[in-house]
TrEMBL record:
Belongs to the short-chain dehydrogenases/reductases (SDR) family. It comes from the Bacteria. InterPro entries: NAD(P)-bd_dom_sf, SDR, SDR_fam. This is 3-oxoacyl-ACP reductase.
């Protein structure tokens, strides 16, 4: 399917690997020029070189922490009013509700709620002025059903979801869509970190921890960054203009809900 976005410009945050890279890769395959971002310059440059070589698109890299005001200013300057914005950042650490104090919540809110909001606040007006734009926020299945050990994620991402629900409907008249993409367990470094947590907590091997977690997913496997990215690219395509303020869950059926 031709996604109809060849030649558009996208800012894809936190995209040197994992789900962000999957999104950058699928957009590059659709002919979209990219601004890619991550904190580590070396991996970021390698990822950008890979996409330039395979897809012939222009890729600018910005090595910075996108959760800081300076980092946001840097990526926004490089992207210069993009047609497509994909927000992403590392997730909050696991723990128990009794572990966290105000500063922990502020950090999670900064990274996973206020950062995407700041980026949208900057990118939406030029999209509206052009009469076309796409925003996809990478959130989590924890928005649909809470994950006990990820209370900081549950809280921050649900706040973002409420913001998107209201804002998406205010920019839709201008041809701009905002939607959220909710990963369940995907085969990335983040999943390995969470497997490690299970392995340590239960005193079992990493393989056993993975098998245990795969057993909770009806698809009986982790998702891949490539299939996540393909869904993101579709949500950024010309075909998804009637999708407004939605929360698209990619979890292999793990969330046991009718709707
Ligand atoms: P990942 O494989 O660890 O990749 C994270 C990417 O983001 C890397 O490129 C990393 O590069 C970059 N990054 C992290 N923090 C950053 C920051 N502050 N500023 C700029 N770049 C940053 O993680 P992932 O699995 O793709 O997860 C992406 C998001 O989806 C996370 O918020 C995660 O919590 C959420 N999620 C993931 C899963 C899953 O199973 N994978 C499930 C639910 C939700 P640097 O480290 O070099 O900055």
């Amino acid at each position: 399917m031709d996604l109809g976005i060849k030649g558009k410009r996208a800012l894809v945050c936190a995209s040197s690997k994992g789900l962000g890279f999957g999104c950058a890769e699928a957009l590059a395959a659709a002919g979209v020029d990219l601004v890619m971002n991550a904190r580590g310059a070396e991996t970021l440059e390698a990822a950008a070189a890979d996409l330039r070589a395979r897809f012939g698109v222009a890729v600018t890299t910005v090595a910075c922490d996108v959760t800081t005001p300076d980092g946001q200013a840097e990526v926004l300057a490089a992207a210069d009013g993009p047609d497509i914005l994909v927000t992403n950042a590392g997730g909050p650490p696991p723990g128990l509700w009794s572990d966290w104090a105000r500063d922990d919540f502020i950090a999670a809110l900064d990274a996973n709620m206020l950062t995407p909001i700041a980026l949208m606040t900057a990118c939406l007006p030029p999209m509206q002025a052009r009469g076309w734009g796409r925003v996809v926020n990478i959130t989590s299945q924890s928005v649909k059903a809470p994950i006990p050990q990820l209370g900081l994620s549950n809280a921050a991402r649900t706040g973002l979801t409420g913001y998107v629900a209201g804002t998406a409907r205010q920019v839709a008249p201008d041809g701009v869509t905002i939607n959220n993409l909710l990963p369940g367990i995907h085969d990335t470094d983040r999943a390995t970190a969470l497997d490690t947590g299970v392995s340590t907590a239960q005193g079992i091997t990493m393989d056993a921890a993975r098998t245990q977690r795969e057993g909770t997913i009806p698809a009986r496997r982790y998702g891949t960054a490539a299939e996540f990215g393909a869904t993101c690219a579709f949500m950024c395509s010309v075909h998804a203009g009637f999708m407004v303020g939605q929360n698209i869950l990619l979890d292999g059926g793990a969330t046991n809900a009718t709707i």
